[in-house]
């Protein structure tokens, strides 16, 4: 038995049984150990950003971390953007980054790099393994950190720590510490603040507080006090649909967000951050609440967020109060759009035909900005989205979600420009035969950047600006790209064509891509 075997066994005894990987030479002993552990599912990504994005999507749906396998510092550098997104979603993840053997580092070989410094900005926990016997303790620490911080952890595995022998040992699951609870006095103070401010108060949620039961409890608290309810602008996972809380999230455009929050004088944050603009704009505020708003952080990420919501609702005497904001079911199916296809019609068709208990992975960016609001009364589903703003996560998120939930249909809403960052994820969908319908919003431009140029006061675009913002010279051919990676695909230019293709994709298993030309 060697250090790599101990690594696999420590992961498996703690129920980490999926590894998304893009290995290299330094990790060959880990690959060999994985080959000896059939209970570990190994999923290959052709780019490291696919690997970490898929691990993010997996953990959001599985409520436990996956492992990743990355090759030295440059391999991890390719993975950093989606590590950033996972960090912003507070996603548990265990990255195993291979490195040169400890005694080889002195030679400054071409792949030598400062992995710790690369990892720290995107990781909540970083640990270099010191020896083969140190492998088990390091992985245990990373596992605990991933679920209690919670978030992205990175463990650096020198090659000789993987190949050197270790003594056999009986492994047991690590006991996780209890999540932190909010003290009763703070709960009483916040309850009093909600009663005092009534309709000019609001509760803002994220993380595990956006599951069905805690959302409903929060909505009971709001019904008892008259307070409003919001989620953050970007969240790891929301349980949505008819019969659940129609949870409004903060708008991306600053003016819309300011209007949402203009009447809030008392804001209670449960896991959430103070709402701010995604970017700074000339003449507009960075914070989205007015200067006189009192902000109370009741619980932070890593605290017991559902327990905090339950305790607050109990303090308000509202546990039996009928919840506010429950989305009603649709009385009848809306009429499906017809004619030339545009982004709004795509969103309308998808929200109308969304299947029960599906998973929506949303990186539609500007094209699908209103899609979330269209789905309040859709059949019940889980919604996961781009969180940190580092585009290129949508296709990998769908990979991870489908691996975590193989019996559920995954609907990926994907902008074309950001989809090109990690298009290799389609190959993984084909290889694993994942049940994903990918909808490409093919406007052949970085449409969001057109809007951002106008937002900073530039309304006339010259040749150079158009070259940097448009994708039409040549136009991307998503059907050919998807088919080249083994995914069936078709193109729609009318609403009728899109409806037919989307219905057909929902009625079959396996990956399918629709290029919606808008």
TrEMBL record:
InterPro entries given in the database record: THDP-binding, Thiamin_PyroP_enz_TPP-bd_dom, TPP_enz, TPP_enzyme_TPP-bd
Stretches assigned to the Thiamine pyrophosphate enzyme N-terminal TPP-binding domain: 1-109
GO BP annotations listed: small molecule metabolic process
Pfam families reported for this sequence: TPP_enzyme_C, TPP_enzyme_N
A GO molecular-function descriptor: flavin adenine dinucleotide binding
Keyword Nucleotidyltransferase belongs to the record: no
Keyword Signal tagged: no
Domain (Thiamine pyrophosphate enzyme TPP-binding) ranges: 379-515
Key words, A-Z: Thiamine pyrophosphate
Family statement drawn from the similarity comment of this UniProt entry: Belongs to the TPP enzyme family.
Protein name in the entry: Acetolactate synthase-1/2/3 large subunit
Organism the protein comes from: Bosea psychrotolerans
